[in-house]
From TrEMBL:
Its main location: Golgi. It comes from Coffea canephora (Robusta coffee). Residues 98-123 are annotated as: Disordered. The chain crosses the membrane at residues 18-35. This is Glycosyltransferase 61 catalytic domain-containing protein.
Length: 528
């Protein structure tokens, strides 16, 4: 094997170099043979697994950040998502082409026990579950394109042979394929845009979206075939509260349905007739077809296209980057104006010596967070040159009349609460004045109304009260944690915050301090 004559023909250096190259060639040949026999053991496969692991970690970290915000923000409001404008973590859909590289999530797709999106009690799903909510649809099988990573809502877009069985709350997708892969795949969703809040979601029915092969037994037969798409949503949750009516339902219903141009059917689960009736004028303009109270249906309704759930990405805002043609809150407000015959599109522009009086609406509260010196505030505002209206909207208030009254105003003012939602009816360049009570809820107040006002082309002012303006001073000494350390109540959860700072606090405005806010509003109306 070893030829000494051959070896002597080379110098020692050349012998070493020859040996090195021989070893290298042998190593390459060995690795090549091994990879041929073990195709799964490939550098790209290792890289792919590492990327999938990082994706899961990143998704989990995003969810963890939002969970921290839930302590101080009620109703599952996620201020983190509002602050990080333009972030794309909530749209990890991986469904544009219908294919993707294998990932760790594929292992859980076919397991029905791992597809529950919202727990009955917990305000947030377990962290490990959150990291698995990336769905990779297969167009050949008819799988839905689902987004489970949004901060406010989950939804699935479905195309194909869709059959809805109401008594089992199941949407069947009948696949033309007969392969094993087409069997036993299911997804679950609660179609309401407040998924991080257990209090809201406990009254929202869970629906199962199930992919089945066409040759399986016990597939329901269609009894009513529809030629239009459908949208499934729940009128449970916090419906009835004006803020949640708009933020959780009406705005997402509008944005989700716009692509269909009225040729869409709404399927309302947890149907509340009074709620649908209240907003019937809006629904009749969004769809040319009747709303089906789907839970009561005995028939099997069939569609070729469906959206199960609502698309909602930000609090009380339409995220234009997520919708075609730059759909925005300005479009939604134009829709409200045309529906309720709101004549004013722009607030008054004050001119020196013009003699005009801007109209100010003071939202009155009857039970909690009342302004105990409404009369004094009203008199001061009138002396400054405002025409003042004091109003309170209730469940029985005629929505059209109240919307028109708000639209006639240039300034809307009130203590933080659902009544400020009526800013949607204000003309452009109007002013919202939010009075923020004690309790460290500044961030919440801005997320609910301050940030959305910008998207509505409404100018925003806020007035933070001091301890001496709060009725809490009659219940606690000034050195109490209620005044010194509101964060200690935040740590106890939303119940403690609500009980102390929202349900048991009224406000008596310091007229001298507040005057400058009303004067600033007048200056803004002169600027336009």
């Amino acid at each position: 094997m070893y030829d000494p004559i051959f070896a002597k023909s080379f110098s020692k250096y050349e012998q070493k170099r020859f040996g090195f190259w021989a070893i290298l060639v042998c190593t390459i040949m060995a690795v090549s043979i091994f990879l041929e026999l073990k195709p799964g053991f490939h550098p790209l496969a290792i890289l792919g697994n590492a990327m999938n692991l990082q994706l899961s970690i990143d998704a989990a970290q995003d969810k963890l950040a939002m969970k921290d915000e839930d302590i101080s923000l009620p109703f599952g409001i996620h201020a983190v998502e509002q602050a990080k404008e333009g972030e794309q973590t909530d749209m990890l859909r991986v469904n544009d082409m219908g294919t993707s590289s294998p990932s760790a999530t594929e292992a859980v797709e076919s397991d029905p026990t791992n597809t529950s999106i919202v727990k009955d009690i917990d305000t947030n799903p377990p962290l490990a579950t959150q990291a698995k909510k990336v769905e990779t649809p297969s167009e050949e099988l008819g799988e839905p394109a689902c987004n489970f990573l949004g901060p406010l809502s989950d939804y699935c877009e479905i195309k194909g042979d869709i059959r809805i069985e109401a008594n089992s709350s199941t949407v069947f997708i009948v696949s033309p394929q007969t392969t094993i892969a087409a069997k036993n795949k299911s997804w679950s969703t609660r179609p309401y845009a407040r998924k991080g809040n257990g209090g809201a979601m406990i009254s929202v029915k869970k629906w199962t979206i199930k992919l089945v092969s066409h040759n399986e037994d016990n597939i329901p037969r269609c009894s009513i075939n529809h030629s239009i798409p459908s949208i499934l949503f729940s009128t449970g949750g916090f419906s009835g509260n004006p803020f949640h009516d708009f933020s959780d339902l009406l705005v997402p219903i509008y944005s989700t349905s716009q692509e269909f141009g009225g040729e869409v059917q709404f399927l309302a689960t947890d149907h509340q007739h009074w709620w649908i009736s209240k907003y019937q004028m809006l629904f009749s303009r969004l769809s040319r077809h009747e709303i089906i109270a789907i839970d009561k249906e005995k028939e099997i309704h069939c569609y070729s296209r469906m959206v199960a759930g609502l698309k909602s990405y930000k609090e009380f805002i339409i995220d234009s980057s997520k919708f075609p043609h730059g759909l925005s809150m300005n479009h939604f407000r134009q829709f409200l104006r045309s529906t309720y015959s709101l004549e004013r599109t722009r607030a008054i522009k004050l001119r020196k010596g013009g003699g005009q009086k801007p109209r100010l609406m003071l939202i009155s509260r009857g039970r909690t967070r009342k302004l105990t010196n409404e009369g004094e505030i009203t008199r001061m505002a009138r002396k400054l040159g405002y025409e003042v209206i004091v109003a309170e909207a209730g469940l029985s208030t005629n929505l059209t009349s109240f919307a028109q009254l708000v639209n006639s105003c240039d300034v809307l003012m009130g203590v933080h609460g659902a009544g400020l939602t009526n800013m949607v009816f204000l003309p452009d360049k109007a002013i919202l004045v939010q009075i923020i009570p004690l309790g460290g809820i500044d961030g919440l107040a801005r997320v609910d109304f301050g940030i959305p006002s910008k998207d509505m082309n409404i100018r925003y002012l806020e007035y933070k009260i001091e301890a001496t303006e709060s009725s809490l001073i009659e219940q606690y000494p000034l050195d109490h944690a209620v005044f010194r350390d509101p964060s200690s109540f935040h740590k106890q959860g939303w119940g403690a915050i609500r009980s102390v700072y929202l349900d048991k606090q009224n406000v008596k405005i310091d007229l001298h301090r507040f005057k400058s806010t009303l004067v600033k509003a007048l200056k803004l109306l002169r600027r336009h």
